[in-house]
Amino acid sequence: MSIFVSSKHEMRMTEKVKYFTDNQEKLARYGKALSHPVRVFILDYLANNINKCCYSGDMAEELPIARSTLSEHLKELKKAGLIQGEINPPYIKYCINRENWQEAQQMLNLFFKRGI
């Protein structure tokens, strides 16, 4: 909801208009997750190790970036739902979220299948 104040200092509430479908918002979220080469590398790394979960430290050894930067990219991928993490202090294991991975794959396929 948005609040508008008129010149007479009266407050009135209006509902925010939703312009995008849930599918459009979800597709954009998946697209954002794929919009950085480090995140694509992480997804590729996890997909190539699909039968096991990987520690963030293992990925840090493969990438020329700081662990804090890797952590931010992992956070974005988790936020999009493409990966999931299991915390066993001091370690965090990550793996592909198979359900959302398949959903993203289907949504992207449908999006690009349109005849142009």
Question: Which keywords apply here?
Answer:
3-stranded antiparallel sheet, 116 residues, alpha+beta
Topology summary:
Blueprint (H helix, E strand, L loop, with lengths): L1 E4 L5 E4 L7 H12 L3 H12 L5 E2 H7 L4 H14 L2 E6 L2 E6 L1 H16 L3
Protein described:
The protein has 116 residues and is α+β, with helices and mostly antiparallel strands. It has one domain: Orthogonal Bundle (Arc Repressor Mutant, subunit A), CATH 1.10.10. The chain is built from 5 helices and 5 strands. It has helices at 22-33, 37-48, 56-62, 67-80, 98-113, and strands at residues 2-5, 11-14, 54-55, 83-88, 91-96. The strands form 2 sheets. Strands 3-5-4 form a 3-stranded antiparallel sheet. Strands 1-2 form a two-stranded antiparallel ribbon. Strand 1 (2-5) and strand 2 (11-14) form a beta hairpin. Helix 2 crosses helix 4 (67-80). The radius of gyration is 19 Å and the shape is globular.
Relevant CATH superfamily: Winged helix-like DNA-binding domain superfamily/Winged helix DNA-binding domain
| CATH 2nd-level architecture | Orthogonal Bundle
Radius of gyration: 19 Å
Could you tell me the number of beta strands? 5
Brief rundown of the structure:
Helices cover 53% and strands 19% of the residues.
